């Protein structure tokens, strides 16, 4: 059963060992067994025993659905549902953390209206995480009935529920009607709007925020990054640091790295690198180190990327680290180095995934390492038993096409399963035919493309150019006329010169 909450944040390991035995609970090898007690005896046992005794067993068997059912039976037979004592509320809170789908979550009428705000906040967060809108609506109504209309934590949970469920207007309405708001309330709304793609609304809320925190800055920067508005994301990042003196967290850095990479902003990457070193993020968070490797490579500085990678200890390097450096070597045309890194990765005991194989195949393609690339593709299928996707096939066909092995490339393209095949594969092959002047295959491939997607002006133009390069001007003119008759369009080329 899914566990959304981590109760060990609230109870230490010493508490667990101190309360492992419970007088009225006994454990069998397969599941938790509750001794048969009368309701009065069970209630008396609970009153005599600290509630953490029960809680420790709840946590210990948090993945056992049968245990949850037996706990529920005990609560019902002991009569604890009739009065919400402090002990019972503490126990119920733990059950909600361990079992978000615990039966009372679906049967709100059995909940005593005297529950505290802590319980309602937990329930609302569970509904948001599990996308249970109808129970969430019932909880919202119940909070109004019991007088929590103005409670900032409960109302913040309601804002999060509506935002997570996509009910933007309801989230805004609850937010606007709140007499008091904490910074968490503002951040919840901004984050919800960003995830819904409502960046302009999120920015308007951000600009209204009386006291911005690093969380709100990170959320709005993330919104611009998600929508590929990288210059604005980078501008906000510098504004946060330079004008407001806000210190970025690890999450902030992870959010801005994609924008730095897309802009190729090497100086910003170096500044972030220095900041991460100063704050100890690079040493403590492997995600920061991996992002630096990828960012330096995409900014065109493979030496810095390799330097960051080499500084990592063998124990810290994970599969993402190796994949990042292999991908970096690949994009810089260093196929031999990428292949060497792949072999070292395997020696270190890391098992490649489909992303790693895609990087190494691309490296072999750009480096002209055809036989090595074929061996890696065989390893992908046979040794690792990974089903190739269209991108793996595309890299393989591109590799063979660059090497002039067009017949092999056409054969592989023809064998790609229909459910993943697309025209991109055939256009890759068509480009190789154009480069190597194979007119007959180019005509076959073009007709295959037209049958799959229909008319596209670029395909006709390319085919016409292939015939013209071969001196067959009549055929070239024929393909131009076919383009005119098909009413297909071609985007005109533009120059910034």
TrEMBL record:
It holds the Pfam family PPR. One of its GO terms (molecular function) is RNA binding. One of its GO terms (biological process) is RNA modification. InterPro entries: E_motif (IPR046848), PPR_At4g14850-like_plant (IPR046960), PPR_rpt (IPR002885), TPR-like_helical_dom_sf (IPR011990). PPR repeats lie at residues 182-216, 285-315, 318-352, 353-388. Keywords: Repeat. PROSITE patterns: PPR. This is Pentatricopeptide repeat-containing protein At1g09220, mitochondrial-like isoform X1. It comes from Momordica charantia (Bitter gourd).
